[in-house]
Amino acid sequence: MAWYETDAPHWLGAAWKSEVAAWMDEALAARGHQRTGPVTPVHLRVWSAVCRAQTTAGDVYFKSAPPGMDFEPALLAYLSARGVDGLRLVAMDAQRSWMLTRAEGATARDVHGKSPEGLALWMRLLTRYAHMQLDLAPQADGLVAVGVPDLRLERLLEQFDLLVGCGHLQCGDDGLDARELLALAGQRTRVEDLCGELAQAPIAQTLQHNDLHDSNVFVRDGEYIIFDWGDASVAHPLFDCEVLFAVAAGRWGLAAGSDGFLAFRDAYLGPFAERSSMDKVLRALEVSVPLAKLCRAMTWHRIVDLPSGQGAREIVARRAKHLLAMLSNDPAVQVGPSSYL
């Protein structure tokens, strides 16, 4: 069994199957429906548990996550209350951070694959997503208040210190050696300077998904619906570009600098440029690259101390090494390419 699969996530408790089934039945009955099939696990991983069940109202999905990643039900309720289209909540248990949502069909990857139609829809989604981020920027404090992790620039230096002090950075094949650990700690001023420069850019901090690829998007009535917000944070929106550009290359083969890539890039950056200029946004993007790597490292840092968290520890170590390579430009720091797709 792979590191990310667990028979029973400890944070759900020993009797989780019967408790989840009972909660689902109660939630469905309150809405005049009932379950017509067993609760079937879709995946049981160190970072989330997802189950599916047939009901008289159609299929539904149950999801729960461990502390540190358990804010998604509250976030979905928050977004829904503000008219943001997303997963349709059937029920949620705020105390246990459980949620029940309607089945939405197939993912964008399954429906469209690498087709031109899929790319056109994806670019339309990017523009819509950027506008959503801009609209949510004034509510950054409200998002943090419902539990979304706060990785805004004013906190990133503190996050860098947490990363440097992490006891797992020598894990795995791509972990840091003793010299590299010292070198990473020595980049603190560089991180502080980058945060200061990015803070001057005319782009407000907001909700960012942090893992927006085509298997985290459903197709509903010809539109793309973003889901799986477990990696999200309140941070600089351009931190999303690391994964978005990996999608451009890995899914559609758009080489950096090509006309296709630039159109893809600008579909996302355009709404931000409308409020300042494309030159300023592109400079902000350049500055944001290493900080985005730090943000993604700290996403996995949330679960490094969980049982069965060895894989998460290795991912954090790998991303820390990538971060060092970006900050230091030291050719002696060798690490393989990241994989997102």
Summarize the structure.
By secondary structure, this protein is an alpha+beta fold.
Describe this structure in words.
The chain is of the alpha+beta class. The chain has 2 domains: 10-102, Phosphorylase Kinase, domain 1 (2-Layer Sandwich); 108-328, Aminoglycoside 3'-phosphotransferase, Chain: A, domain 2 (Alpha-Beta Complex), CATH 3.90.1200. It is built from 12 helices and 9 strands. The chain has helices at 16-29, 72-81, 108-112, 116-136, 140-145, 153-164, 178-185, 188-199, 241-252, 259-273, 278-301, 310-328, and strands at 40-44, 49-53, 60-64, 89-93, 98-102, 206-208, 217-220, 223-226, 233-235. The chain has a 5-stranded antiparallel sheet, with helices on both faces. Strands 6-9 form a two-stranded antiparallel sheet. Strands 7-8 form a two-stranded antiparallel ribbon. α4 (116-136) packs parallel to α10 (259-273) and α10 (259-273) packs across α11 (278-301).
